[in-house]
Amino acid sequence: MGLETILNQSTVQSQVVRNVAVQVPPLGNHFSVWFFTSIGIIPKIDPLPWDISFQKVAGIGSSISMRKFNEGGENLFVHRLPDRVEYENLVLERGLVLIPTIAIKGKTFSPVTKLFEDAMGNMEINPCHVLVILHGQEVGIPLAAWLFRNAFPVKWKISDLNASDETIVVDHMELAFQNMWSVRI
């Protein structure tokens, strides 16, 4: 390998490093949330505009719980051993949807609201997959996504009603889930 080849490769590599280094982290204000339910083997997507539009998503993360182990005769430290991966609840917030959840000709007008009403009102737990997609500044271009498997409602509340405030009524929805997969696109 000649000196010229090495210099050319070095220049290309440094250019790639510079391009990656100046990449601006994405903004967190362009995202969508999709709910996938299963009917048999064929997945069904409910892409209703009010059911994929949220003002806030939180709880995307995981941690490893630790188990402490005391070694006999060792008083200076405690062994900490990894136990299992734990997840927070996925928290979704949006303006209160006033679309009825009743079915007309077999079509439910707000499947997400119905999912929560079934769980909280009838204790009917219907796990589904939830996909959160982070979009770039150019609408529609996905940058990253998180898939939450077997998610089910565990908490649902609306914001406080206050006669002295002129604020939007917000639906606060929390889902527990089995595990989470992160995808960089």
Brief rundown of the structure:
With 185 residues, the chain is α+β, with helices and mostly antiparallel strands. It has helices at residues 3-21, 49-52, 111-122; strands at 31-39, 42-45, 56-58, 62-69, 79-87, 90-95, 103-104, 107-108, 128-135, 142-158, 170-176, 179-184. Helices cover 19% and strands 44% of the residues.
The topology string of helices and strands comes to HEEHEEEEEEHEEEE
* CATH class identity: Mainly Beta
* Number of beta-strand segments: 12
Question: Cα-atom Rg, whole angstroms?
Answer: 23 Å
Tell me the count of domains. Answer: 1
Mean pLDDT rating: 80
* Share in helix: 10-25%
Q: What's the CATH superfamily, by name?
A: Hcp1-like
Strand percentage lies at 35-45%
> What is the CATH-assigned architecture?
Roll
Return residue spans where pLDDT drops below 50 for at least 5 consecutive residues. none
Which structural class should the secondary elements be placed in? Answer: alpha+beta
| Coarse shape | extended
The separation of the N and C termini measures 36 Å
- Put simply, the count of helices is 3
